[in-house]
Amino acid sequence: MREEIGHRTGNADARRKIVLAALQLYCEIGHNKTTVSDIARHLSMSSANVYRFFPSKQAIEETVVGEVLEETVSAATEAARTPGPALRRLATILKAIADCNEGRSAKHGRLQDLVALAVRQNWTVVRAYDDRIRGLVRPIIGTGQASGELRGGSPMALTCCLLQAMDVHLNPSWAGAATLRPSFEKMSRFCLDALACSPSLHAGMPSHVRLEAAG
Q1: What pLDDT score was predicted for residue 178?
Q2: Region for residue 152 given its phi and psi (left: phi exceeds 0; alpha: psi -120 to 50; beta: otherwise)
Q3: What is the rounded distance in angstroms from the CA atom of residue 41 to the CA atom of residue 175?
Q4: End-to-end CA distance of the chain, in Å?
Q5: Does 68 or 7 have the greater pLDDT score?
Q6: Could you tell me if 108 and 170 lie in one domain?
Q7: What pLDDT does 208 receive?
Q8: Calpha distance 14→99 (Å, rounded)
Q9: Domain co-membership, 13 together with 46
Q10: What does the pLDDT read at residue 119?
């Protein structure tokens, strides 16, 4: 039993060293220029040894992207614990995600290129990340609806609408892009205002229009 545990621990340590070496090289020279041989050389091991723990370079890249996105999830999770009304908590989550992307783009642009590629190609780790972010946002919207702070509707549908509308600031592919877009502050305020429950907004509408707007 001890030998089996020690073997598993050794494998985990080796995998971790490979991922950290790849992460460093991706930051320094980019994922396109980094080969498995480079990673092996960095660790003073053979390429065959690297392949014992990862079946391909793609598998290493996916693990690295997963670790990078985990940092964003951690920041968003911490932001979700912010006390206060739902709109404030949502704003804090959105800002945390945007700051992670912009900070990574500024400090480690080559690594951000890999994350952006993973997003564009919809890798499995990216889909899992998206699910976790939605899982953070949805219950806050539900809580805001229960308190009367936010408009009615499916919490999941509103979650998806909010994140999609904010995609230009939340998607790693856009980080650092020189493109015409509203500032984060303006876009987040627009989106969060749309979520807020404002009875006066619908006061002058015909009843059937109010029902459609509320749904």
Answers
A1: 55
A2: beta
A3: 32
A4: 58
A5: 68
A6: yes
A7: 40
A8: 32
A9: yes
A10: 94
Rg of the chain in Å (alpha carbons): 22
Q: Tokens standing for 159?
A: 């979650």
Domain containing 44: what range?
Answer: 1-55
User: Region 143-160: what's the mean pLDDT?
Assistant: 97
**Rounded alpha-carbon distances, angstroms, from residue 20 to 43, 161, 185:** 10, 36, 35
CATH number of the domain that residue 98 is part of: 1.10.357.10
Residue with tokens 């992307």: 101
Q: Give me the percent of the chain exceeding a pLDDT of 70.
A: 84
21, 47 in Cβ contact below 8 A? no
Q: What gap in Å lies between CA 31 and CA 117, rounded to an integer?
A: 10
Kindly compute the dihedral angle of the four CA atoms of residues 164, 165, 166, 171, in this order, to the nearest 10 degrees. 40
Residue 94 has pLDDT above 90, yes or no: yes
The mean pLDDT of the chain is: 88
| Local confidence band at 201 (pLDDT 50, 70, 90 cut-offs) | very low
- On whether the CB atoms of residues 159 and 137 are closer than 8 A, the answer is yes
Cα separation, 109 vs 28, in Å, equals 9
Phi and psi dihedrals of 200, rounded to 5? -65, -25
Q: Are residues 43 and 76 in the same domain?
A: no
pLDDT score for 7:
46
Q: Specify whether the CB–CB gap between 38 and 25 falls below 8 A.
A: yes
134 is written with which tokens?
A: 């939605």
DSSP track, 16-42:
HHHHHHHHHHHHHH-TTT--HHHHHHH
